[in-house]
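We were asked to recover a plausible sequence for a given structure. The inputs and outputs are reproduced exactly as logged, with field labels preserved.

PROBLEM: sequence recovery
POSITIONS: 355
GIVEN STRUCTURE:
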């Protein structure tokens, strides 16, 4: 087996995303999708893009979308890079900003794609354990690293790193790129975008999959100094000189232009998150303080796998990793109010709190 495979990937373990079931209907709280539809303007723009124009290649520069994002964030268009989901943008970061000679670091208990990319692109890395309370020990990330990458808020804990701490990371790694993966930032975390002027080594990566309900369109982007963005363009152009397809470009632009819908969408998720966290705590769960569209929870009376299986049998999908330190934890995506009420109802029965 593995004949003809590159020796580089023979021992690799590819990333396994959360289950996307096709055989039956579940309440799907396992991959942090948004339960609400994309903005009406995004849907309208996507529909408009479907037509005769699809015979033409999309704009390789994604000029209009980059201009719209630049205006939205108050930066220049040359400070914006767009890609097929932030996963692709992150892959380009590993290729364009990190190197085989110097180990990068990221937290141990973090986005599980980072070690996969590091393996794929031959980047050595050091994983730094979270503190007992699952916060990030920033002091251990400072020094002569080959780069730093971390989600803020962290995934799957949902815990946010205060802006001053992100600044310490950027200032404390002056010779390396510091990539802040802000996939969930819109659900209550202060963004590192405000630091960009002062830290040319800082790159902020965003996605439209979560707060903009566009996971199916695969749109992600990075904001940073023109120098870092040029590195990502260098990788992209050697790989696939086109960025997003015409429909994704249109939908993403429509979403950026629909600020009122965006604000309502994220506000609704945050409200439901707070209600759900309170209901789970009442049932005896330990709930990490989340600034994301998910909750990371454990229960003293039940193991993580047991809860995962029980919920699945009742038609509710959540995420469980079974890794050391977090084997008793589940990550539960925030769905609609009704979905979360059903979740609480099932858990109440499971824990015998309905008597
Ligand atoms: N970063 C983090 C921390 C994530 O959890 C995810 C979603 N799995 C992503 C990036 C990638 O999101 P997407 O590719 O949909 O933009």
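RECOVERED SEQUENCE:
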């Amino acid at each position: 087996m593995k004949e003809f495979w590159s020796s580089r990937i023979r021992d690799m373990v590819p990333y396994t995303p959360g289950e996307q079931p096709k055989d039956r209907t579940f309440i799907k709280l396992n991959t942090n999708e948004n339960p609400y539809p994309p903005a009406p303007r995004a849907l309208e723009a996507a529909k408009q893009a479907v037509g005769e124009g699809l015979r033409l290649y999309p704009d390789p520069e994604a000029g209009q979308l980059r201009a719209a994002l630049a205006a939205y964030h108050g930066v220049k268009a040359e400070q914006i890079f767009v890609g097929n989901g932030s996963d692709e943008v992150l892959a380009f970061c590993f290729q364009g900003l990190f190197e085989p000679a110097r180990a990068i670091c990221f937290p141990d208990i973090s986005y599980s794609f980072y070690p996969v990319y590091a393996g794929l692109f031959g980047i050595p890395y050091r994983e730094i354990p979270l503190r007992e309370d699952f916060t990030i020990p920033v002091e251990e990330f400072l020094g002569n690293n080959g780069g730093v990458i971390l989600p803020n808020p962290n995934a799957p804990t949902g815990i946010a790193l205060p802006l001053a701490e992100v600044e310490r990371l950027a200032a404390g790694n002056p010779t390396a790129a510091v990539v802040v993966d802000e996939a969930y930032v819109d659900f209550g975390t202060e963004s590192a975008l405000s630091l960009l002027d002062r830290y040319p080594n800082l790159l902020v990566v965003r996605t439209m999959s979560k707060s903009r309900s566009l996971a199916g369109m695969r749109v992600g982007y990075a904001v940073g100094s023109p120098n870092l963005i040029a590195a990502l363009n260098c990788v992209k152009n050697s790989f696939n000189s086109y960025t997003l397809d015409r429909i994704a470009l249109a939908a993403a632009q429509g979403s950026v232009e629909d600020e009122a819908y965006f604000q309502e969408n994220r506000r609704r998720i945050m409200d439901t998150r707070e209600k759900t966290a309170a209901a789970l705590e009442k049932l005896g769960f330990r709930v990490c303080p989340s600034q994301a569209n998910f909750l990371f929870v454990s229960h003293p009376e039940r193991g993580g796998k047991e809860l995962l299986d029980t919920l699945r049998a009742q038609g509710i999908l959540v995420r469980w990793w079974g890794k050391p330190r977090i084997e008793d934890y589940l990550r539960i995506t925030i769905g609609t109010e009704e979905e979360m009420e059903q979740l609480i109802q099932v858990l109440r029965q499971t824990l015998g709190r309905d008597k």
